[in-house]
Amino acid sequence: MPATPVQIRLDPQGRGARIRRAAPNPRGGLDALWLIDADPLAPAPAELLTATPDDMPGARRPVARRLRLLHVNDLHNHLADLPEGPQRMAEIAGHVARARAEAAPDEAVLFLSAGDDHTGSIFDELLGWGAEDFTLDPGYRALSAAGCDAAAIGNHEFDRGAAQLVRGIVADADFPVLSANVHGSAHLVPGQHFHAAALAEAKGLRIAIIGLTTRVETRVGQPSDPTLAVASPVEVLAKLLPLVAPLADVVVILSHCGYGGGNHASGKAVVARDIGEADFALADTAAGLVDVPCVIVGAHTHTRLNETGVEAQNLRRGILIAQAEANGRFLGEITLTPGAPPEARLIALGQGGGDAAFARAHLAPMIALVRERMEQPVGHAPDDGLDWNATRDSRYRGECALANYMNDALVAELADLPGGAPDLALLNGGSILAGVARGNVTFGQWFDVMPYSDEVFILTATGTQIAEILRSNARRLLRPDETGIDTAGFIARGFLHTSSGLRYRIDTGAAAAKATPEEIALFGQPVAKVADRPFRIAMTTYLALGSFGERWNGLPIAGGVEGDLPGYDLRALPSQNSGLVYREVLVRHIRANPEIAARPDGRLRITGG
């Protein structure tokens, strides 16, 4: 480390990187913290800005020779398994507290999150959708209390909009929230709400922490924040790493970009999904720019890495890539010791126990807030026709009764929508995450079916355009000869289901490229007779924005479909955001029509296989 004031490069236009001292999380493991802000669009740095000695004293005597990193990723607000299951955040907090209490005098312990701390559990209801219904940010509040030292911004942090993310950061994040490649938001202000990187000091050891966010599945271009954008994580890392690495003894890249690169299958993806620039490319870039130990703490793909020790394929050009699956199933642990190879393992969670005092103080109040809503009855399923056994396979292979129900309910409930009711609805099978078991159905059970934070968009398409959409859809079908695929997992093809006004047949042909939609009828009329008629189509935010890795954005269809077949670009169609929350619309419909039941009715038939 230099014994002189630290120099941070700055480009001639005044953009570039700045550094300032900040207060670390009082429950965390840091003795000092500096925040680094950098413009991801700035050209290569050319000039120098010297930080004052008070900002960053150069002289120090490191006590720690060993660094232990405890890490989570993709928690998705799975803080506790309700109603009476394991208290996962209490288990995490207990492990972190014990690790810090038992640390040797020369060992520093940090606790980090690699992002997607939001979206996926009933606790999301506390976030609300605006200032009027924001209660608290459960993920950030729990992480703060558990002693988190820094967290990356994941793509799902933007699901309820950047303005709502800002409310959560301001109210509940006692740690720095990091992303070096997010920019342009009208609400999320760099240097105020989030930062490109942080320099942490623990027992004299300095750790540079850089946050990166996937550009493939982040919701950009929404009306509420039209200029929000995500720059190339590889290009940004190549600019930033030479600035921060000389300041540190260790570099940690909090990568919410995914394990692998390009089209890659791991974690929740049963077959290859598009993840773009991800951890492999980041490791290759970093390897040529650092001469201190460097690790990638990954996320986004829900991949279980290094469960019982470092796996050879995860040590890329000397840089360890780690990830702890998702949803609080594991706590990751990395140990770095000078002169020794990195160590890593996963600690299984969900076994019960945990820090009881933490659970009482920090989880119990949040559980009390959501329990009443979770247990509210909303409807009744008279039979097993919509349960998971009936749903898991059909959502990718053909007509799906639960998708039929959801699409038809959406159209019916929006019959009086200002600006015009939708004629049709479309839903991708991957948006259905659970079935509806026979018996009374609570809000919490329905939430499990559709946990994503989506609003209702209305797109307009002619009969001809609908036929083109169905042609792309026919190619996305999980074909009859594709056997041995676990349909309980995520298959990133974006196969669509329709409401009852649209009926057709798919001829699977000899290969995906030969699959065609036949006998297309819109409200009983052959599509040729309504070729020029515009139809209003209701769908989720996810679909309207091109469904990212599921490729309703003009890019070749992913998910293992051969032939680089171009996907239809739904983003090209005229659209408007209704402002309605998709799940809330369906819950309203169920409350008014309590019987939750549907059957395949022949709106989609499969032949040729």
UniProtKB/TrEMBL annotation:
Keywords noted in UniProt? Hydrolase, Nucleotide-binding, Signal
**Cellular component per GO, a single term:** outer membrane-bounded periplasmic space
The family database entries (InterPro entries) matched by this protein are listed as: 5'-Nucleotdase_C, 5'-Nucleotdase_C_sf, 5_nucleotidase/apyrase, Calcineurin-like_PHP, Metallo-depent_PP-like
Q: Which residues form the Calcineurin-like phosphoesterase domain?
A: 67-303
Asked if the Swiss-Prot or TrEMBL record annotates the protein with the keyword Hydrolase, the reply is: yes
According to its UniProt entry, the protein's GO biological process terms are: nucleotide catabolic process
User: Example GO molecular function term?
Assistant: nucleotide binding
Q: Where is the 5'-Nucleotidase C-terminal domain?
A: 378-547
Which Pfam families does the entry mention?
Answer: 5_nucleotid_C, Metallophos
Hey, which family's this protein in? Belongs to the 5'-nucleotidase family.
Q: What name does UniProt use for this protein? A: 5'-nucleotidase
